[in-house]
Design goal:
The protein is of the alpha/beta class. It has two domains: 143 residues, Leucine Aminopeptidase, subunit E, domain 1 (3-Layer(aba) Sandwich), CATH 3.40.220.10; 314 residues, Aminopeptidase (3-Layer(aba) Sandwich), CATH 3.40.630.10. It contains 15 helices and 19 strands. The strands form four sheets. It has an eight-stranded mixed β-sheet, with helices on both faces. A six-stranded mixed β-sheet has the order 1-6-5-2-4-3. It has a three-stranded mixed β-sheet with strand order 11-12-16, covered by helices on one side. α10 packs parallel to α14. The protein is elongated and about 80 Å long. It binds ligand BES and zinc ion (2 copies). One zinc ion binds next to loops.
């Protein structure tokens, strides 16, 4: 539970007080602490001051560094780490003081603190029979001036929905493949949106076949867990207005198929639906917040496994768009499912712009690590919009070159295309393979193989699914904060 409320020190177990380096502080205790060497308010400093014989047991002073170096993202991380610390101290009620400054308005503080607190506390522990904490923490955002209270509560409600979208994406990504497979993923989506305005349609194998989605079926048709096409429609904008199309890679498990992955690379491949998780999480935030735009999302959910009738290297398959594809490697399956999902969303859902989100290549991790999502696009204006939003919500993207030399690498000698572009520039060729199916619409491809999964539990992250890029997808269609500095 999180709310905006100035609580008295007798009412809470602990409080978090953000402090700028070299700040002029009024508080006597803090002045003493800062004149000693233990805490200076430097970035990444956290000083826990216990108190004895009172209801409030701890004050957690969080260093924010110098004002000129302040960034909302660093602020979120610092608060999230302090909240994690409070959790480890078994704090049950926590006040968090806002830190309004020229770079972050009251609303921005509420948003940042809501994200930091709720994402910082997130952990995927539903399969532990002994839970660490049963009782959730009560969090109070303190210091909001009375005249800003109404706006702050509006921001809080919106932010909670976005955070819930991120958490939904994390949960879906973290669930193992024996819990989430195409059918159960579709059921969860239906259940999640049951009482909302969002329309969900689930197509089964026969309907997928009737649509001619042969590339999708080549990948997912052979598993006993049959594929599903999940369609989500949010209509918040004008009736005949533009529709943004989101496509998420939905491999609920990727063994690699006959081009089998080694065990160590396979182990986390239940998360190969991180793109699907992100578009589902974004649709959650979009519908819960009644965003005034039209958005349709499509997930081609399936498993890539070995079965007697699975596709094999050397096969030549067809696609919904009619293009033929030579299979060079059955582990390059994501682009095949995306090719048909993109064709479907353009031809059957009539979208005018497309963003596909996919854990597509290990090469993305090699090139950009786990902080930056790789981007391939055919439209600079659309890309600029993405970057402006990303900057405000604090997610990171990097554009890779879309040059025809890379597109050429996807050409086959025996079919129209092949599903491996060669040994080099793997993230670009994989992206451009999907680009062969976008029919010249403005299109952005996001390779989240590196960013959708975190090995560390620091700041707002916890080990496992990250929920990237839910916030950017949401921010692209939602109204920005009137202050103009953040979404
Ligand atoms: N799902 C993987 C990509 C991936 C790798 C995601 C690591 C997350 C972490 C994808 O289907 C795949 O296997 N790609 C191959 C492509 C290659 C065969 C051209 C890869 O990256 O090795
Ligand atoms: Zn694969
Ligand atoms: Zn994959």
């Amino acid at each position: 539970m999180i709310q905006i409320k100035d609580v008295a020190l007798q009412e809470i177990d602990a409080r978090i007080v953000p402090v700028f380096e070299e700040a002029q502080v009024q508080d006597e205790v803090l002045t003493q602490i800062m004149t000693s060497d233990v805490f200076k308010g430097k970035a990444e400093e956290l000083f826990v001051l216990p108190s004895v014989g009172e209801k409030i047991k701890y004050t957690l002073y969080v260093g924010l560094g110098k004002l000129e170096d302040f960034s909302p993202e660093d602020f979120k991380s610092a608060i999230a780490n302090a909240v994690k610390k409070a959790k480890s101290l078994k704090v049950k009620s926590l006040g968090i003081q806002i830190a309004v400054n020229e770079k972050l308005c009251v609303g921005g503080n509420v948003k940042a603190i809501t994200q930091a607190a709720l994402l910082g506390l997130y952990s995927f522990d539903k399969y532990k029979t002994k839970k660490e904490e049963e009782q959730p923490m009560n969090i109070y955002i303190c210091g909001v001036p009375a005249e800003k209270n109404q706006r702050a509560n509006t921001v809080l409600a919106e932010s909670k929905n976005v955070v819930e979208g991120v958490i939904l994406a994390r949960d879906l990504t973290n669930e193992p493949s024996n819990a989430i497979y195409p059918e159960t993923l579709a059921n969860i989506v239906v259940e999640t949106f049951k009482d909302t305005n969002l329309e969900v349609e689930v197509l089964d194998e026969m309907q997928i076949e009737a649509l001619g989605m042969k590339a999708f079926l080549a990948v997912g048709g052979s598993s006993t867990n049959k594929p599903r096409l999940i369609v989500m429609r949010h209509r918040g904008g004008a009736e005949n207005g533009e529709v943004l199309g989101l496509v998420g890679k939905g491999l609920t498990y990727d063994t690699g198929g006959y081009s089998l992955k080694p065990t160590n690379s396979m182990k986390t491949m239940h998360s190969d639906m991180g793109g699907a998780a992100a578009v589902i999480g974004a649709m959650y935030a979009i519908s819960k917040n009644n965003v005034p735009n039209n958005v349709t999302a499509v997930v081609a959910a399936c498993e890539n496994v070995i079965a007697p009738d699975s596709y094999k290297p050397g096969d030549i398959i067809e696609s919904m768009a009619g293009k033929t594809i030579e299979i060079g490697n059955t582990d390059a399956e994501g682009r095949l499912t995306l090719a048909d999902a993109v064709t479907y969303i353009i031809e059957k859902e009539n979208v005018q712009k497309v963003i596909d989100v996919a854990t597509l290549t290990g090469a993305a991790l090699v090139a950009l690590g786990s902080e930056y999502t790789g981007v391939v696009t055919n439209n600079d204006e659309f890309f600029d919009e993405l970057m402006a939003t990303a900057d405000k919500v604090g997610e990171k993207f990097w554009k890779l070159p879309n040059d025809k030399v890379f597109a050429k690498m996807n050409k086959s000698t025996v079919a129209d295309l092949k599903n491996i572009g060669g040994p080099h520039a793997g993230t670009i060729t994989a992206g451009l393979f999907v680009g062969e199916f976008v029919q010249d619409l403005p299109w952005i491809h996001l390779d989240i193989a590196g960013t959708s999964w975190s090995e560390k539990s620091e700041g707002c992250l916890s080990q496992g699914g990250t929920g990237v890029p839910v916030k950017t997808l949401y921010g692209l269609v939602a109204a920005p904060c009137p202050c103009g500095k953040h979404k």
